[in-house]
């Protein structure tokens, strides 16, 4: 999901950029969100001048920064890269190198992933990703890098076209019509990009794209179809002025897919070419189409669908039309693939959430059942212990009476633990009643309650002004109660025990803290304190079950907030919890 969002952010940055340098810089600034690297650069190749120019780099120093030119003889260009295939340098240290390679190696780079940026079959330049260890790149890195390079290639191609249009507008009056068309084409492709980014589903993506492309690629009929090769079906995502409705699904044998299209190449067909597929031929004749531009949408060398654009004149499509169709199909292929991946991720996340919910409910039900069933034998143990102590104490020696006291104390501890577990399990079932809360009044009520329940005459409570919040009042009362009881317990060895309660509004959230000057805790265990049965100190030193802070954490998370703790051994402890703004809806 992060990868898809990062690619969307990169697309937005590319769309906002004007020059190749700005495009490359904006892309590299965000590329770390989807692919880790020590150094990255974008370079374009000038074949006539036999040199490469660095558009942008991403590293801590300015070595080989944007604007640097490199002779092609000193630039890493293998036959695979010239053919449009990614290549790697597994270990710079293992190669005899000089010039640029030596400079890059001195920057700490050991392995380099080189990704070609192609314009049809011509190499525009390279996106190079460097890491500090040898053989650092996986097949997944290649796939992610290739996708990023494809985005860059499209953007740079458009930037070069845009620059060409802008520089020739004033000088070539005879090319005004063509330049105007190019400008309109680029603007339309930008509009299509914007519409694609705003669309939510594959159907919306396809519909917005073919609606807008009509201004630069006129047609009498158009469709966008995705193919499911395993199921043997073609799904029509969008249709304009076509006998086919969208969305709809057809068997593949009713759709004309030539070997050329299956291989990922564009072709223009006459209606006669559809004779092998009578159903498709009948549709063409019904619409009166004479020329059909067929552009495959290709992702990672796999055809995922076809854009069909039809006209009623024979041989109606020029090379410029083919280029526009190709660019449209490239944009749509990437967008549709991202949409499909996003839908798959969303579906998987929903399935995981359902499974987590089921497991949570099972666990809470189990905890409640076990805790409830434990009470009966526990009462029996405690009752028989009391009978022995009251009716048969004279038959027991001092050690026997001590052991009975141990049993009695253990049953009391066990009872408290069961109560805490029941409270924890009920939190998952409790229906939240979200209301405005006067946190100042609630904190004071809880302090008074803690004073009555514990011997706190020596403890000084300092309650500062607290901001109002919103939530389930009884549940937030549990939070204050557990934190204040903890503070009292861990200050009982202090000569001047103090407990402070304060709060503030921070970035829209309501942040509250209960601070004490007690025994504190090891700061390395701060995160672990909120787990069930986690204790900061030995059970013999301080009473408790290790469930109270877990209850606090569960309640605050149900309010879409968070808890954390700070402290040092012998220097007291501070327990924080943050609640969303009262205006925020809490699930």
Give a structural overview:
The protein has 587 residues and is of the alpha+beta class. It folds into 4 domains: 2-161, Beta-Lactamase (2-Layer Sandwich); 191-342, GAF domain (Beta-Lactamase, 2-Layer Sandwich); 363-429; 434-579, Histidine kinase-like ATPase, C-terminal domain (Heat Shock Protein 90, 2-Layer Sandwich), CATH 3.30.565.10. It is 45% helix and 21% strand. It has helices spanning 2-16, 20-31, 79-82, 99-106, 139-169, 176-198, 202-213, 259-262, 278-287, 319-391, 398-429, 439-453, 473-489, 548-558; strands spanning 39-46, 51-58, 69-71, 87-89, 111-119, 122-131, 221-228, 233-240, 248-251, 267-270, 291-299, 302-311, 434-437, 460-463, 469-472, 498-506, 509-516, 562-567, 573-579. A 6-stranded antiparallel sheet has the order 3-2-1-6-5-4. A hairpin with a 2-residue loop joins strand 5 (111-119) and strand 6.
Roughly what fraction of the amino acids lie in strands? 15-25%
Question: Termini separation (Å)?
Answer: 22 Å
Task: Please tally the β strands and state the result.
Answer: 19
- Main CATH class of the largest domain: Alpha Beta
How many domains make up the coordinates? 4
Radius of gyration: 35 Å
List the helices and strands and how they pair.
Blueprint lengths: L1 H15 L3 H12 L7 E8 L4 E8 L10 E3 L7 H4 L4 E3 L9 H8 L4 E9 L2 E10 L7 H31 L6 H23 L3 H12 L7 E8 L4 E8 L7 E4 L7 H4 L4 E4 L7 H10 L3 E9 L2 E10 L7 H73 L6 H32 L4 E4 L1 H15 L6 E4 L5 E4 H17 L8 E9 L2 E8 L31 H11 L3 E6 L5 E7 L8
Parallel strand pairs: 14-16
Antiparallel strand pairs: 1-2, 1-6, 2-3, 4-5, 5-6, 7-8, 7-12, 8-9, 10-11, 11-12, 13-15, 16-17, 17-19, 18-19
Helix pairs in contact: 1-2, 1-5, 1-6, 2-5, 5-6, 6-7, 6-10, 7-10, 10-11, 11-14, 12-13, 13-14
């Amino acid at each position: 999901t992060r990868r898809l969002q990062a690619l969307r952010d990169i697309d937005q940055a590319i769309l906002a950029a004007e020059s190749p340098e700005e495009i490359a810089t904006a892309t590299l600034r965000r590329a770390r969100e989807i692919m880790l690297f020590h150094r990255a650069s974008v370079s374009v190749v000038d074949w006539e001048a036999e040199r490469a120019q660095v558009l942008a780099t991403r590293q801590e120093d300015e070595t080989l920064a944007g604007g640097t030119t490199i002779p092609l003889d000193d630039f890493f260009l293998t036959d695979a890269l010239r053919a449009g295939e990614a290549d790697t340098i597994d270990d710079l240290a293992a190669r005899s190198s000089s010039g640029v390679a030596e400079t890059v190696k001195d920057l700490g780079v050991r392995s380099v992933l080189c990704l070609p940026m192609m314009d049809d079959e011509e190499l525009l330049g390279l996106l190079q990703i460097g890491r500090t260890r040898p053989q650092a790149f996986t097949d997944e890195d290649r796939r992610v890098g290739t996708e990023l390079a494809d985005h860059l290639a499209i953007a740079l191609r458009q930037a070069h076209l845009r620059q060409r249009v802008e520089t020739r507008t004033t000088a070539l009056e005879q090319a005004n019509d063509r330049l105007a068309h190019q400008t309109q084409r680029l603007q339309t492709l930008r509009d299509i990009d914007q519409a694609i980014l705003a669309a939510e589903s594959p159907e919306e993506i396809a519909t917005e794209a073919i609606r807008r492309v009509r201004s630069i690629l006129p047609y009498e009929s158009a469709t966008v179809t995705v193919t499911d090769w395993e199921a043997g079906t073609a799904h029509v995502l969008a249709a304009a002025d076509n006998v086919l409705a969208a969305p709809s699904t057809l068997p593949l044998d009713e759709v004309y897919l030539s070997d050329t299209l299956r291989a990922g190449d564009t072709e223009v067909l006459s209606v006669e070419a559809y004779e092998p597929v009578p159903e498709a031929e009948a549709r063409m004749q019904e619409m009166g189409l004479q020329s059909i531009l067929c552009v495959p949408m290709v992702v990672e060398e796999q055809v995922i669908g076809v854009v069909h654009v039809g006209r009623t004149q024979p041989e109606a499509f020029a090379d410029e039309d083919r280029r526009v169709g190709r660019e449209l199909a490239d944009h749509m292929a990437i967008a549709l693939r991202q949409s499909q991946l996003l839908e798959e991720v969303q579906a998987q996340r929903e399935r995981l959430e359902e499974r987590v919910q089921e497991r949570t409910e099972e666990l809470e039900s189990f905890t409640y059942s076990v805790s409830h069933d434990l009470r009966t034998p526990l009462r029996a143990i405690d009752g028989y212990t009391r009978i022995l102590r009251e009716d048969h104490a004279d038959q027991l020696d001092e050690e026997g009476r001590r052991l009975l006291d141990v049993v009695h104390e253990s049953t009391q501890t066990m009872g408290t633990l069961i109560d805490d577990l029941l409270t924890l399990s009920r939190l998952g079932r409790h229906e939240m009643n979200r209301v405005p809360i006067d946190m100042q009044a609630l904190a004071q009520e809880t302090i008074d309650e803690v004073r009555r329940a514990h011997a706190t005459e020596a403890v000084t409570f300092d309650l500062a002004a607290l901001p109002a919040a919103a939530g389930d009042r009884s549940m937030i009362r549990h939070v204050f109660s557990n934190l204040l009881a903890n503070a009292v317990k861990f200050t009982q060895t202090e000569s001047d025990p103090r407990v402070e309660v304060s709060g503030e509004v921070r970035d829209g959230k309501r942040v509250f803290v209960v601070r004490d000057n007690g025994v504190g805790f090891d700061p390395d265990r701060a995160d672990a304190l909120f787990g069930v049965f986690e204790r900061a100190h030995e059970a013999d030193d301080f009473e408790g079950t290790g469930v109270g802070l877990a209850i606090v954490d569960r309640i605050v998370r149900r309010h879409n907030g968070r808890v954390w703790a700070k402290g040092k051994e012998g220097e007291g402890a501070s327990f924080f919890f943050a609640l969303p703004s009262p205006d925020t809806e809490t699930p």
